Amino acid sequence: MEKEVKPAASLNGILNPPPDKSISHRSALFAALSDDVSIIQNYSVAADPQSTLSCLRKLGVGCEQVGGETTIKISGVGRDGFSKPAELLDCGNSGTTMRLLGGILAGAGVPSVLTGDESLSSRTMKRIIDPLIDMGCRISGRQGLYAPLQIERHDGVKGIKFPLPIPSAQLKSAVLLTGLFGEEPTEVIEKIQSRDHTERLLELHSEVSDVGRIIRSSRTDRIPAQTYTIPGDFSAAAFWLVAGVIHANSSIELKNVGINPTRTAVISILEEMGASFHFENMRAEGKEPVADILIHSAELNAINPDPALFPNCIDELPILMVAMCFAEGRSIIRGAEELRHKETDRLAAMAEIFNRSGAKIELTPDGMVIDGNRDFRPKSATYPTWHDHRIAMASAILASKSKSHSLIENAECTAISYPDFWDHLNELTYAFKE
Ligand code: S3P
User: Fold this and answer.
1) Which terminal CB of the chain, N or C, has fewer other CB atoms within 10 Å?
2) pTM score
């Protein structure tokens, strides 16, 4: 499906971003690991979190919709209660499903095969395979690193001390989840903190030391059944943060957004560029902080963001690059090589999008140089997406600043994380220039 994006004179309105993808996956997985019934409120209907539910069902976990499609009742089977699946476990496009569920099943020693779509099957799984093998698990991949992942029974999980070689929350979570099956503790040590939803929701023990933050897991950690309430997805909200700032005369209110500090670095980067946001109704929902966010137009200046912030805004970097196109001066992103390992190579993809739009950019091995300009008007263009939801949404916001219509190819891929994205864009775009 192709979507036409019309130029927006301004963007105004109130939106509820979709439920958080990362927290949806985790709540379902952790509920499955408990011994009793959990309720998840506001579970995401997006494709990735639905892949997690469909895999859990194949493992004998009861996952039922109760009173609407976003309230899910999960009948936990306990750490040792997963059934050997009769079918392949299809993780679809979801790296979080494959890496976190891979960690659980490898730890539990459930003979199973995890598959994914073309994109997921070309992303490296070696980062989880290596430490899980060190822990005594039997897990292997095609050519040693790609899905399908094959998991077999093992003779017991050993605790390891694991300094994270990359600041990845999926890797951290996979190792900690496998650690839940070991009698001895597993220690994961992170120098740069990545999103901490796993530690928060499981209440894992952590401490800060001179080597970094140490998080521990073992079989002695209890995994209680509970009621989970999923906040709005900050990574989805980020598209509107940038859209509201780069369009003149705009005002957007986002309701019920998760503002976990390990996710929100793009706020501080945009603020340093000249934007300002207001947080209202700040509260805790379950174990996560939540707020409503008010966004207004602003005049942006270029920035060279500190790469140490990237683990806390890794999914927001494509839309941040869009903001940089409209910021006066030269912005330089360095140290973002990890973007090349996402649903597509997001550095190469954004460079191609910007080239089609007429933006002045230079792609580098680990980032991009962007010569921005507040009066920049992207050319009308046809934008490929590589079926990557965040590339599609970033291109749409870029295109909304154009003088005439643009086309986004394979626009249905936004349903991976944000099924209502196109409706929300229409709702906000009340004035068109034809
Ligand atoms: C996620 C972690 C990040 C992020 C992904 C979701 C998670 O991936 O890009 O969208 O839920 O843990 P990495 O761990 O590969 O950085």
Assistant:
1) C
2) 0.97
Render 53-121 in DSSP notation, one character per residue: HHHHHHTT-EEEE-SSTT-EEEE---TT-PPPPSS-EE-TT-HHIIIIIHHHHHHHT--EEEE--TTGG
Q: Is the pLDDT of residue 433 over 60?
A: no
User: Is 168 near ligand 1, meaning CB less than 6 Å away?
Assistant: yes
35 is catalytic: no
For strands 62-65 and 12-15, give the pairing.
unpaired
What distance in Å separates the CA atoms of residue 393 and residue 391, rounded to the nearest whole number? 6
Mutate to test the pocket of ligand 1, among 21, 96, 317 (most ligand atoms within 8 A of CB): 96
pLDDT category at 403 given cuts 50, 70, 90 is very high
| CA 249/CA 118 separation, integer angstroms | 42
Tens of pLDDT, residue by residue over 43-75, are 999 999 999 999 999 999 999 999 899 999 999
Asked whether 48 lines ligand 1 (CB < 6 A), one says no
The closest residue, in CA terms, to atom 4 on ligand 1 is: 315
Residue 89 CA to ligand 1 centre (angstroms): 20
Query: Is the pLDDT confidence value at 411 over 50?
Result: yes
